[in-house]
Here is the input.
Amino acid sequence: MRVITGTARGKRLVTREGDAVRPTPERVKEALFSIIQFEVEGRRVLDLFAGSGQLGVEALSRGAREAVFVDSSRESVEVVRKNVESCGFADTARIENMDFSAFLMRREKPFDLAFLDPPYRTGLLQRALPLTAARMSPGGTVICENPADEELPEEAGDFVRNRQYRYGKICLTVYRRKDVTIE
Here is the structure.
């Protein structure tokens, strides 16, 4: 697993061993960042269910202003910390070791971009999506990684499902505010 492009291009990232995490495959990560290539620079990013933090680190490498990494696992938080520090992003990253819902209930500045990639088939994505939508800026984008055979809702708060991209057994589902359209 590596950073694809930007200031940390080629930097190897560490991940937890075992089945506790499921890192986003390289080709899916490349596709994801192609979809949002003009929406990253200068933005405030949320990497919810961060795991290794690879999505938030990639966003920082591509010029995101700030990334907040949230994971309930202490082991994952330590991996995120190592990745953030090894890529030189310690001053633009904030790492929170807490439950996603407790984090999303806090008074927090809105996010411009959010990545939701929880463990599959746990119901966490369906619970986190509306809470995340409520924490987004008006022109914000929420991207969910989910199994292709799992149906996600058409709407989440003021956000609607904009597009869905399938990569084998994985889908990237993009949500945008109802009154914002980007092709």
About this structure: The chain has a mean pLDDT of 92. DSSP finds five helices and eight strands in the chain. The beta strands are 44-48, 66-71, 93-97, 111-116, 136-147, 155-156, 159-167, 170-177.
